[in-house]
Amino acid sequence: MLVYFIPKVSAVNLDTLQKRGLDYIIPVIKREPAQVATSSGPDGSSGVIFTYTDEGLKLDGIKWTDLKSNGVWIGYNPQSNKIEKQLKRETQLGGHQTLLSNGELWNVPVLRLLGSDDDTPLPRKLEYDGEKWIEGNVKDEYQELFEKSCKMWDDFITGGKSDITLSDGWDVAGDALCLNYRLSKMEISIMGLFDSQSASKSALAVIDYPAWDEYVKKKLNTTQSNIPSLPDGDKD
Questions:
Q1: Sign of CA dihedral 84, 124, 166, 66
Q2: Helix (H/G/I), strand (E/B), else coil: 46
Q3: Residue 75 contacts by C-beta under 8 Å, 6 or more apart in sequence?
Q4: Which tens digit of pLDDT belongs to each residue from 3-39?
Q5: What is the pLDDT of residue 235?
Q6: Which of 158, 71, 143, 72 is closest to 112 using CA atoms?
Q7: C-beta of residue 70 within 8 angstroms of C-beta of residue 9
């Protein structure tokens, strides 16, 4: 269960959410959230508690975090079940099912596919030259993340010789997860989706490491299967 509280308002609408920087939680088919006015929010003031999750406004067990920067509180019940399904974006980028720290599998999108340096499932620009459509660069809103994922791959393949840090990789993994789910890195932190292991697995998913791992295993199996076995009498 993931809920939000905005103090000193009597109702919440789409405009309110956008002004508070919460437009990322709004579904593609825009609708008002389930909400209830309260005279005693987590900070003791009046305001509105609201959610877009299917569970509705069940507030038992909710633990609140004050974002401070935008006057919004985020509430989460650690006992929530199937939160991944509730936060899925209607359209998701292809990725790898990755077990996060709440015990659920989440679809972490691949930003750089196994292959050439510019191979990515991220949307690209298309331009028409009068005769045919020409595929261009990754769309502007994804370009920075794509470039970071390429640096992560370079770091992986060279054994850590680039200037990218482990924390940088976790940051990219968080941003990537937000492409497929209606949350931000604050919600990832509040819900405890990342620990050092799950964040690192997510960072590897971003650079398509599971495909690389499968490729290496197949190559090893092929090599071993091509080694002729010794006759029984020659094994000693």
A1: negative
A2: coil
A3: 1, 2, 3, 4, 5, 42, 49, 59, 62, 63, 64, 65
A4: 999 999 999 999 999 999 999 999 888 788 889 999 9
A5: 45
A6: 143
A7: no
Question: What gap in Å lies between CA 43 and CA 178, rounded to an integer?
Answer: 28
Alpha-carbon distances of 227 from 221, 222, 223, 230, 236, rounded to whole Å? 10, 9, 7, 9, 18
pLDDT of 223 reads 62
Place 231 in a pLDDT band, splitting at 50, 70 and 90.
Answer: very low
The structural domains of the chain, with segments of one domain joined by +, span 2-80, 85-217
Residue of 117, 152, 154 whose CA lies nearest to 137:
117
Amino acid letter at 180? N
Return the amino acid letter for 106: W
> What does the chain come to in residues?
236
Predicted structure pTM score: 0.85
Task: Indicate the SS3 state at residue 200.
Answer: helix
Task: Characterise 57 by phi-psi region: left (phi > 0), alpha (psi -120 to 50), beta (else).
Answer: beta
